[in-house]
Structures are given as C-alpha cells and as structure tokens.
Design brief:
Blueprint lengths: L34 H12 L2 E6 L2 E6 L2 H9 L12 H7 L4 H4 L4 H14 L1 H6 L1 H17 L4 H18 L9 H17 L5 H4 L12 H30 L6 H7 L8 H32 L1 H15 L14 H13 L9 E2 L4 E3 L2 E3 L4 E4 L1 H4 L51 H18 E4 L30 E4 L2 H17 L9
Parallel strand pairs: 2-6
Antiparallel strand pairs: 1-2, 3-6, 4-5, 7-8
Bound molecules: protoporphyrin IX containing FE.
Length: 509
C-alpha cells in the first residue's frame, strides 16, 4: 500500500533539491558523518522543504518548525511510519513490530504501555530516583572529573535500571551495562540507512549466507538483544512470583499484561527500547552542556548567581526549586537548541501521496526534520550560532513566553520530535536535564584548563563523534567543587542517599 502512483498531480511540482546522478541519485553527495551540516547548507540554498533521491528512494528534508509541524504533527495520520529497512525486516521480522507499523495494534499497544510508564504523572514519581542518582553523580564527578562521560552514562542508565528493572548500577563498568552499550552501538549502526549496503540494494538479500556475512551479523545482534531484554524480564518475573519485586516498569507490565495485547517478547522489548532510547541521549545532552559551560564562563556565572539566590549555600537544589530557576531551564533548552542530540532528526515515513504548499510528497518518502537547521532559523532564533539562554528569558526575543515560573520548558520542543512519534521519554528527560544542570552548577566550577605554558587550553566548538547520538568527543576542562563547604554538602547528601536508598539491600555493596 506504500507504492505511490508517482504521478505529480496537476498544479503541484516536486520540491527543489541538488541534482543527482542516474540510478544512485544523491547517494554520494551525502557525507557519511554529520550530514545535518550539509543538509543545512542545502536548506539555505533550496528552502525549508527540499528533496534528495537515494538510489530510487525519496528523502525529503524539512528545515523549519512550521513545515515540520504542518506535516509530522498536523498530518500525523500520513507521516507517522518508519522506514522498514529491508535488512532488518527480513531477518528480524516480527520482533520489530512494536515500533514499526503505526496502523498495527502492536504499535498502538506499545505506545500505550510506554505512555503509562513515562507520562508526566509517572515521571514525577521517579524524581526521588533522579535525586539519588544525581547525588551519586556529583560525588564521583567532583572526585574524578576526567571520567565525566562515564559518570553521566551511569546516571542516565542507572536511572532507567532502577525505575525500569529495580536494579542498581554500581559503576560505569558494570558488565551488563557494557553489553547493553555494545549492543546499542551496533543497533544504531544497523538502524542508520545505508549502513548496510543491502538497504540500498535489496537484491543482495537473496545471496546465500556464506556469501553474505552481514546476515549472520544481524542475526547474532538480534539474538543478543533479545537475550538481554528477556533476561531482565525473566529476573523481574521470578521476583514478582516470589513477591519480592520492587516497583518498576517490568513489574507494572507483568502485572497488567492482559491490558496490553502484546506477546511477552514484545512487552520485554518495549521496556528494553525505553532503555536503549533514553540512556545515551540524556548523557549526550549533558556532555554538550559541560561544553557550553566551559565555553561560556559568563553564562555559568549568571546561572550560579540565580542558584545562590534561590537555593542558598547550605543545600543542594531540589525539584521544588525548579519553578524558581528559569535560568536553569533556559540553559538546558538552549543547550538542546545549539547542540541537538538527534541533530538530523529521526525520520518519519509517509504512507500516502500528499501535496504541501504546491509540492508533491509521494507515499514512501522518508521525511527528515533536520533539527540542526530548524534550530537555526533566523526569524525564530536571531543570531543562531550564539549560545544565548537569554533568548528564552527576555521579552525582546521571539522565543520568550510568559510566565517564567513555567516557561521555558521542554514540552513539545522540536528536540523531542513530532506528532505520534514524539519522544515518550520527554518528561523524564526534561527532569533529568534540569536537575543535573541545577545541581552541577550549584556545586561545581567548570572552566578551561590552563596549560603548562600558562595559556588556556582551548575547547573545540564542534568536534563531535559521528553516530546517532551526537556528543562532543572527550575534551579536557577543569571541574572542581566551588568551595570546601559545598563539597561537604555533597558528601553529606551522598551519605544520606546511600543510607536511605530503597534498593539498599539489592546493591551488593
Ligand atoms: C535529552 C534526551 C532525549 C532526547 C533529545 C530525545 C529525543 C528523541 C527524538 C527526537 C525521538 C524521535 C521522535 C520522532 O520520531 O519524531 C525520540 C524517540 C524516542 N525516545 Fe527519546 N529523547 C530523549 C530521552 C529519552 C528518554 C529518557 C527515553 C525513555 C525513558 C526516551 C525514549 C524514546 C523512545 C522509546 C523513542 C521511540 C518512539 C517511537 O519511535 O515511537 N527518550 N526521542
């Protein structure tokens, strides 16, 4: 049903775009990494909706919030599918259903389950876990700032470990965590179109296994993924039977399974997906925030000033402080604008022929909402290359909104996608980013390093890893407690949290 009639209707035309080569189209014009930068240049040249053709497949790139909302949100009945990569689908088949077929009941039930676990009312109940894990983060970050990537990963995955499975992550070299990340890394590779040649040339799929090593690789990958998710699910199921399971997503699912018409494998997969989608993204956003602070000491100072006024010197910020900390929320929001985590957007697939603003969009088009460009639209974000939290705080900017006790917030922000596919973890992510920004800025100074020659060691503006989650490559900067008193506050909070940890007897240390 995805086949377009491919005839451009009368009065409409195809959108503009760079000219391609015969057969392969624009395939070779797309840089293998950081493609959103090239896409932004093309948007400047061709406008907010331009067309690429990749080996016979249509890829349209959207570069303003207006067009993204008009298509992906307002016409969500057409634009809510995902491309089913032939390599993945042929080999993995049914197990991908929860996330791929928007008109299939499995998809609806999966999103319903995710909503139950992650909606705002639920997210509020995870705040105490965010307080606990953020206190652990501070305690270790101050003692060993060089390993900031590891501590942020432990925070974001440790949070989901606790609320998702009732398990505690000890260190950032937890063996299960390593397995999950190795797996996640592979999955991102498989999920990026073109990673497997077979997605570009489906005919390769017909090769026998011995000529097609990628087939074995994919199968092994999926077996490992199922194995991990199923293992976690089984652990919780056993505990539910024994009456010892702590409250967690798996337990909620197991106890209410009959309300969701999902197979056990799909249910386990849905909860596993929340982990896969939520851990790396949150950590990546915070790595970019550290970069922003190292680059903008004046912004960190303003942030600390507000924190000192609202919170004082004697205690760490809590969730109750956040309505009074608009600058914390503005800084988090501006970080996601300036260095978006899913920079090129997560593509949606259209399922019906459509016309927008006189331009024809055939069924089966991959629509990319390029956040890098969306967040740099001059009219909305004047001086877009400048990191400027004030644009969310001062009435003279187009993005300002009243009242400051509520705005800025991250709800419906383009960073979290659009319409029926909008990030279900948004409420949890928003709380994580806000509380981490508040607590790290309250407790720590962040600045560029001074080299042995007495000069500042520069921090690169944009030296990012290539991959699905966009995070700065490890960089050198100084982080330390703002004072001995504040370090004492952190230590005491840490001891209190460890003592009152509801999963204390499950920690194993
Ligand atoms: C800073 C943190 C995060 C960012 C920037 C982010 C961003 C996104 C984006 C852009 C999408 C695609 C939306 C679309 O297709 O229109 C997405 C999907 C998703 N996110 Fe997040 N996310 C974050 C954190 C989280 C967390 C904490 C969770 C889980 C607790 C989560 C779970 C998911 C899931 C399961 C999907 C797939 C939804 C679907 O395809 O239907 N995310 N996220």
């Amino acid at each position: 049903h995805l086949k377009s009639k491919q005839k451009v209707p009368q009065g409409a035309k195809l959108p503009p775009g760079p000219a391609g080569k015969p057969l392969i189209g624009n395939l070779l014009d797309i840089p293998p990494a950081h493609s959103w930068l090239r896409f932004k240049e093309w948007a400047d040249q061709y406008g907010p909706l331009f067309r690429l053709s990749l080996a016979g497949r249509e890829h349209y790139v959207v570069s303003t919030e207006k067009v993204a909302n008009a298509l992906l949100r307002e016409r969500g009945n057409i634009y809510s599918s995902r491309e089913q990569l032939p390599a993945a689908v042929k080999l993995l088949g049914d197990s991908l259903r929860p996330l791929f077929y928007p008109h299939d009941d499995t998809f609806r039930q999966s999103r319903r389950l995710m909503h139950r676990l992650c909606k705002e009312g639920a997210a509020i109940t995870y705040q105490s876990t965010q307080i606990l894990e953020s206190t652990r983060l501070l305690y270790d970050l101050i003692r060993n700032p060089e390993d900031y990537e590891g501590w942020l990963m432990r925070y974001s995955s440790g949070l989901i470990f606790r609320v998702g499975f009732g398990k505690v992550m000890k260190d950032n070299d937890d063996p299960l965590l390593k397995r999950l990340f190795a797996e996640n890394h592979q999955l991102e590779r498989v999920a990026s179109p073109g990673a497997y040649l077979v997605d570009t040339f489906p005919i390769l799929m017909n090769l026998p296994d011995w000529l097609a090593p990628f087939k074995r690789e994919l199968k092994a990958l999926h077996v490992e993924e199922q194995d991990i998710f199923f293992g976690l699910h089984e652990d919780v199921r056993r505990e539910v039977q024994q009456g010892t399971a702590p409250d967690c997503w798996q337990k909620t699912y197991i106890e209410h399974a009959e309300e969701y018409k999902l197979t056990t494998a799909h249910g386990a997969y849905v909860v596993g997906t929340l982990f896969e989608a939520g851990a790396g993204t949150t950590a990546a956003a915070m790595m970019s925030w550290l970069l922003c602070m190292a680059l903008h000491p004046d912004e960190l100072r303003k942030l600390q000033q507000q924190l000192d006024e609202v919170v004082g010197n004697d205690r760490l910020p809590t969730f109750d402080d956040l309505p009074n900390l608009p600058r914390v929320r503005a800084v988090a929001k501006e970080t996601l604008r300036w260095r978006p985590v899913t920079a090129g957007g997560v593509p949606h697939l259209s399922e019906k022929d459509d016309v927008y603003d006189g331009m024809f969009i055939p069924a089966g088009t991959n629509v990319h909402a390029n956040q890098w460009a969306i967040h740099r639209e001059e009219a909305l974000y004047p001086d877009p290359e400048t990191f400027k939290p004030d644009r969310w705080l001062e009435p003279k900017y187009p993005t300002y909104r009243e009242p400051l006790t509520q705005y800025p917030n991250l709800q419906n922000y383009s960073s979290f996608g659009f319409g029926r596919r909008i990030c279900p973890g948004m409420h949890i992510a928003e709380r994580s980013l806000n509380i981490l920004v508040a607590r790290i800025a309250w407790a720590c100074d962040i600045k560029k390093k001074t080299g042995s020659d007495g000069k500042q060691v520069e921090v690169p503006l944009y030296d990012y890893v290539s991959g699905f989650n966009v995070q700065p490559k490890w960089f050198a900067f100084d982080l330390s407690a703002r004072s001995e008193e504040r370090w004492q506050v952190v230590k005491e909070a840490y001891e209190w949290e460890m003592e009152h940890d509801p999963l204390k007897d499950r920690r194993g240390w």
